[in-house]
Design a protein that fits this description.
There is one protein chain. The protein is an alpha/beta fold. The chain folds into two domains: 168 residues, Rossmann fold (3-Layer(aba) Sandwich), CATH 3.40.50.1980; 116 residues, 3-Layer(aba) Sandwich (Rossmann fold), CATH 3.40.50.1980. The chain is 48% helix and 12% strand. Helix 2 packs across helix 6, helix 7 packs parallel to helix 11 and helix 9 packs across helix 10. The N and C termini lie far apart (76 Å). The structure holds zinc ion. The site of zinc ion has 7 residues, from loops.
Length: 312
């Protein structure tokens, strides 16, 4: 027994000795290890960073797939991720209320890139008109739901990566250009799909008010019993108003969201008699095996769900 233990010991020692020079070499400035550490606040931004950064970046996402960025509580592991990052990519517009404390706890060395910088803010009037809630009026942070805005996000992320890693400029520009052209195609797909829905049927209910920018860009009206955040429950009055709106406006379908409790929408469906049209991906992607592992998959899934529920 003692002999076989010694054999194992030496086998491990030999393997480690063989690996050591290779590991030292990869950090030795031979040009093979330029990956920069980037933290993205939630999964949709993480996808954009992967598209633009490719193998030059090492992306970590704080709020994971199917997670809710509105009510996130960072852990000590998240503090370490931010402390190790060169860039932190955030949405801004008040979405990540937990961010300032996290950055402070991490020592505050990373550069923060606000991906939504430059988008046209959705007017408060639109939110007032289409949300059942009137008691709070924060800015609507869900700008990514318009593909034209997603292009602004991608451009800001590209510029942030170039500033943090100038030798990668050519690669970041090439990746971003290719992806922006895919987003142009996606934007046309959404417009074409909405064209096929009869105008009087272009209205739905979802859980929280996450589709205001989608509505403004593509002309499907969204009404939500919850406001632009998920951090508080809708009241009985909010729910009753939504049920009345469904009946008065003859809204053809209501939708679940991948991050929220199904019970609210099931209850509204039961009280109003409206049909549940499926699940929309609002603030979060699905995992690899789900319907929306990337932003482009997410928009395609949502438009397919909407058109199949709203078509005659
Ligand atoms: Zn949201």
């Amino acid at each position: 027994m003692a002999r076989s233990c010694r054999l194992v010991f030496w086998a491990i020692a030999i393997v480690l000795a063989a690996l050591a020079p290779a590991r030292a070499q990869s950090h030795g400035g031979d040009g093979s290890d330029h990956r920069i550490a980037v933290v993205a606040s939630f999964s949709i931004l993480g996808d954009f960073v992967k598209e633009v950064g490719g193998t030059r970046v090492d992306v970590t996402t704080l709020v994971g797939t199917n997670g809710d960025v509105h009510v996130f509580t960072p852990t000590p592991a998240d503090v370490r991720k931010v402390a190790a990052a060169k860039l932190v990519i955030v949405n801004g517009l008040g979405l990540e209320g937990w961010l300032p404390r996290l950055v402070q706890a991490s020592g505050g060395h990373a550069t923060i890139v606000v991906a939504s910088r430059g988008v046209a803010l959705r007017g408060a009037d639109a939110g007032e008109r289409h949300s059942a809630r009137h008691d709070e009026d924060p800015a609507d942070p869900h700008a990514w739901q318009s593909v034209a805005n997603a292009k602004i996000y991608v451009t800001n992320i590209r510029d942030g990566l170039i500033a943090a890693d100038p030798p990668g400029e050519g690669l970041y520009r090439a990746h971003a250009a290719a992806y922006l052209s895919k987003l142009d195609t996606l934007d046309r797909e959404v417009r074409d799909a909405v064209e096929r829905i009869p105008p009087e049927r272009r209205k739905v209910i979802s859980t929280h008010n996450a589709f205001g920018y989608f509505e403004a860009a593509y002309g499907i009206a969204f009404i939500a019993p919850q406001g632009v955040s998920t951090d508080s429950e809708p009241s009985a009055r909010d729910i009753a108003m939504t049920v009345t709106q469904i009946r008065n406006a003859k809204i053809p379908a209501i939708f679940l969201e991948n991050l929220s409790d199904e019970r609210l929408i099931r209850r509204i469906a039961a009280e109003s008699g409206a049909r549940v049209g499926g699940t929309l991906y609002s603030d979060s992607l699905s995992d690899e095996n789900g319907d929306a592992p990337t932003y482009i998959d997410m928009v395609r899934h949502n438009i397919k769900a909407l058109t199949s529920a709203l078509a005659d």
